[in-house]
Amino acid sequence: MNLYSKRGFTLAEVVIALGISVISFAALTAAYLGVQSLNMMSKRHIQAMEVVRGQIEMLKATAYTAIANSTTTVSLDAGPDGTFGTADDIQGTLTVTVRDFLDYDGDGNAAENRISVDSFGGGGSNDDVVLPVRVALSWTQKVFGGTKVMSVSVDTLIAA
To answer: What count of Cα atoms within 13 Å lies in the side-chain half-sphere of residue 95?
Structure first.
């Protein structure tokens, strides 16, 4: 009988193989958790865009003179139970601001709350105006073990 047989693995080989396996498993787990976190961020971002789009559609259906600055709390996500209006909903702050943030008419004045349509084409004689509106939604979300304030905003013009 030979004490130094080549038929099996040495303890060092087993420990090294086990170490490589543990490191590989940890890397794959971290990658999986990272992808899950990114998927959740993407899902919430899409939901936020839908909330903002819906608010813009509601503003278009609102009387022109009734559109004003506002801030409200809205449900962004139905939470784990899948039902809106329950305690696990994710809440966001929806802000509607009537102001020319982007200086649509190019007059150098970004503080206006009404824009003359004539200034877009130049030379017109009507007195039509549009409302420059920014609809923004912000919420707090867990990101890679911490929390971060996320936001989505859309600027649009609403005609009378």
So the answer is: 13
The domain spans of the chain are 11-159
| Token couple for 159 | 């005609």
Phi, psi (degrees; rounded to nearest 5) at 115: -125, 135
Query: DSSP per residue over 61-85, as a string?
Result: TS-GGG---EEEEEEEE-TTTT-TT
Inter-residue contact 150 to 141 (CB < 8 Å): yes
Half-sphere exposure for 154 (CA within 13 Å, toward CB): 17
pLDDT tens by residue, 91-142: 888 888 887 777 776 777 767 777 776 655 555 555 577 888 888 999 888 8
- pTM, rounded to two decimals: 0.69
> Model confidence over 3-43: pLDDT tens digits?
666 778 889 999 999 999 999 999 999 999 889 888 888 88
